[in-house]
């Protein structure tokens, strides 16, 4: 065991300067690392992809060809099929194709595309229009209407991906598209990818940045460029990222800046702020008792900053202090919990507040707290919540990804009287299908503005 630890630590030093990797002994495929990559195995991905292609005159015939070949190449790595039943073990990706200029039109639905050659045929049949208008609102409305039908995107808990290939933002109503999407699609299971074919058009570029704005990191994610010489790879990566998501009620995806690729990336774990049901003697079973895996670990400043950006403000109240997994073990040494609730030693990153850790033989657990209301620090405190008076705890679980569909199949053990600021889990069995899921708005956006859940589709202006 020691040899494995040393070897892994050595590899981490060589290849991943900002993260230390420790192989977990019981589940060797799961690394104890903040930036645990999502599966990159496109052949077993299980996405519902809608390609939405601008055919206004601004696109140009050459770009249409480029879209057809880039989308075909990227999706040729995926298993294309029209089966939506993941529980039967058939992992395939469904693809639909839509065009828009002055209005949107479906070119092919999921059932029309059962192979990559069906997709190529559909894409190659697309013709450029003479319309100067590029209205993105109308295709989005049509997709929302589709969610009422028999074979909607997102059925059976599948993640939905909207991929816009855009060359113009020429339609006044486009200003409302970011809100239309934000208010009607569940940001946990829906990913928007945009491919910009005219980055010189600042109206278009800012529209696509607004559409792809990720509220958890307050920056656009998956806003690709049509002139990128890695467009096919960018598309494949973004699609696999879309398959890496947190199921209903499992929390927020870990999103960290990947400096090697100069972009934000999702990683394969989800975090949620949970609360003990009352005073408990130790913290290590609160998370698992509620269906999550373990108290969260924080091994890098990168992850701590992400956590700080989210759990600072819970609807006007502070979310801290909250427990994380760092604790003193029976050997009086600090340790974190891994994915099997076994212990592993700290990897070098600590963020103790001034005067901490105190060595009083009592304060054997750790809470994340803040002195200035901005920056987080750690304090050690008793594990018995009767003495710490801290009930909040940050829990961590696996996200779904191309090779893991467990997150859509977990049930959670929740009270309805959770304090504000907790993501309200949708109890298993209360879900009435994809449409309800898509219409479920998260409670709070990054800037604190409350989003009102829309019960009916907004009318086109
Ligand atoms: C992808 O997953 C399938 C099913 O688990 C497996 O058979 C295949 O070897 C994997 N491919 C890669 C490249 O890991
Ligand atoms: C979900 O759980 C049920 C019961 O444990 C199991 O039969 C089914 O195969 C699971 N489905 C998936 C997609 O894992
Ligand atoms: C960008 O928007 C402004 C204001 O709506 C408009 O005047 C301008 O013509 C637009 N530019 C393009 C290239 O569409
Ligand atoms: C995507 O957004 C980032 C951050 O705002 C920006 O730097 C980048 O230029 C955008 N990409 C495109 C193609 O617009
Ligand atoms: C804290 O941990 C130390 C070392 O394992 C142990 O001796 C002590 O009893 C623990 N204190 C409490 C309150 O559990």
Structural summary, described in words:
The protein is an alpha+beta fold and 461 residues long. It folds into 2 domains: 42-242, von Willebrand factor, type A domain (Rossmann fold, 3-Layer(aba) Sandwich), CATH 3.40.50.410; 251-397, Roll (Mannose-Binding Protein A, Chain A). It contains 11 helices and 21 strands. The strands form 6 sheets. Strands 5-4-3-6-7-10 form a 6-stranded mixed beta sheet, with helices on both faces. The longest helix is centred in the N-terminal third of the chain and has 15 residues, at 61-75. The radius of gyration is 23 Å and the shape is elongated. Mean pLDDT is 84; it is low at 1-21, 23-28 and 412-461. Residues 41, 43-44, 403 line the site of one 2-acetamido-2-deoxy-beta-D-glucopyranose. One 2-acetamido-2-deoxy-beta-D-glucopyranose binds next to loops. Residues 48-239 form the VWFA domain. It comes from Acrobeloides nanus. Keywords: Signal. Residues 1-19 form the signal peptide. InterPro entries: C-type_lectin-like, C-type_lectin-like/link_sf, CTDL_fold, VWF_A, vWFA_dom_sf.
Number of domains: 2
- Strand proportion, as a percent range, falls in 15-25%
Distance between the termini: 64 Å
Shape summary: elongated
Average pLDDT reading: 84
CATH class of the largest domain: Alpha Beta
Cofactors, ions and other ligands in the entry: 2-acetamido-2-deoxy-beta-D-glucopyranose
| Strands ordered across the widest β-sheet | 5-4-3-6-7-10
Largest sheet: 6 strands, mixed
Signal peptide: 1-19
Pfam families: VWA
Keywords: Signal
Protein name: C-type lectin
């Amino acid at each position: 065991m020691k040899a494995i630890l040393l070897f892994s630590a050595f590899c981490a030093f060589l290849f991943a300067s900002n993260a230390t990797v420790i192989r977990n002994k019981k589940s060797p495929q799961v690394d104890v690392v903040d930036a645990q990559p999502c599966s990159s195995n496109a052949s077993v991905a299980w996405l519902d992809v809608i390609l939405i292609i601008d055919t206004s005159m601004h696109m140009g015939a050459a770009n249409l060809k480029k879209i057809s070949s880039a989308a075909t190449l990227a999706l040729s790595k995926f298993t294309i099929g029209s089966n939506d039943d993941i529980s039967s073990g058939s992992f395939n990706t469904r693809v639909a194709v839509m065009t828009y200029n002055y209005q949107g039109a479906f070119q092919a639905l999921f059932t029309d595309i059962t192979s990559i050659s069906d997709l190529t045929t559909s894409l190659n049949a697309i013709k450029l229009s003479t319309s100067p208008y590029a209205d993105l609102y109308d295709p989005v409305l049509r997709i929302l209407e589709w969610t009422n039908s028999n074979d909607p995107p997102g059925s059976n808990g599948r993640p939905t991906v909207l991929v816009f290939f855009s060359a113009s933002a020429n339609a006044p109503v486009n200003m409302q598209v970011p809100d239309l999407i934000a208010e009607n699609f569940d940001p946990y299971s829906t990913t928007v990818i945009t491919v910009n074919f005219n980055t010189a058009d600042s109206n278009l570029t800012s529209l696509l940045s607004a559409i792809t704005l990720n509220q958890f990191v307050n920056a656009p994610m998956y806003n690709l460029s049509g002139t990128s010489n890695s467009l096919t790879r960018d598309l494949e990566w973004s699609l696999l990222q879309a398959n890496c998501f947190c199921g209903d009620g499992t929390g927020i995806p870990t999103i960290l800046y990947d400096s090697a690729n100069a972009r934000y990336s999702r990683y394969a774990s989800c975090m949620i702020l949970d609360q003990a049901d009352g005073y408990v003697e130790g913290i290590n079973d609160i998370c698992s008792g509620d269906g999550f895996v373990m108290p969260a670990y924080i091994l890098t400043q990168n992850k701590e900053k992400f956590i700080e950006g989210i759990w600072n403000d819970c609807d006007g109240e502070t979310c801290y202090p909250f427990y994380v997994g760092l604790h003193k073990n029976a050997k009086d040494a600090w340790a974190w919990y891994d994915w099997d609730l076994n212990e592993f030693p700290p990897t070098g990153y600590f963020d103790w507040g001034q005067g901490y850790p105190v060595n009083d033989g009592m304060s054997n657990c750790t809470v994340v707290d803040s002195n200035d209301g901005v920056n987080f620090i750690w304090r050690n405190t008793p594990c018995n919540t009767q003495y710490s008076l801290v009930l909040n705890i940050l829990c961590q679980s696996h996200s779904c990804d191309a090779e893991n569909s467990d997150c859509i199949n977990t049930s959670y053990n929740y009270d309805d009287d959770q304090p504000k600021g907790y993501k309200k889990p949708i109890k298993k069995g209360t879900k009435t299908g994809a449409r309800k899921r898509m219409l479920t708005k998260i409670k709070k956006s990054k800037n604190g503005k409350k989003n009102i859940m829309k019960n009916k589709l907004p009318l086109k202006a």
